[in-house]
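QA checklist item 7 of 12: single-chain prediction sanity check.
[x] sequence parsed
[x] length recorded as 182
[x] structure emitted
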Amino acid sequence: MFRKLLNSELGRPDIEKYKTLDKSPITVVLDNVRSRHNIGSAFRTCDAFRAAGIVLCGISSTPPAPEIHKSALGAEFSVDWVYRPDTVEAVKELKSKGYTIIGVEQTENSVSTDDFLYGRRRLEADGRYAVIFGNEVHGIAQEAVDLCDFTLEIPQYGTKHSLNVSVATGIVLYVLSRGLHV
């Protein structure tokens, strides 16, 4: 028999407490993500994995927005975020601050998420990482891909060539977070 736990039984911190907790060394960069629902989902996923923050770039909407709030369920208040008008400039800024830039994209020589999931490759716990997720139709702009230290690819076995950006965000943050628990 399984009884669903009540929210009060989950031991989750409130927003004030969350803000004081250690965060993972992972920052999410959204490159021209069109859907406010996808952006809200990214906020919620970043909250779940205690990501360091989100950089919203280009046409990506920013809070406050009802559609973001609907998907984020308030995570837009717990997760730190900034807006940058140009993804390439945002990535250059992060690179200059010592971030390793990881693009989630199908490229020549991309690294499979399986290599992280099964421990064949890990992130350094003392590093700083910016993970770029691209536009729903065009992916990450090539100019931003060119700035990546490496790219990750999620193995897929069906007829479609990509996953929804919010789904990809959840998969990649889970995979990268293994071994980086704060």
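[x] summary fact logged: The two ends are 32 Å apart (CA to CA).
[ ] second reviewer sign-off
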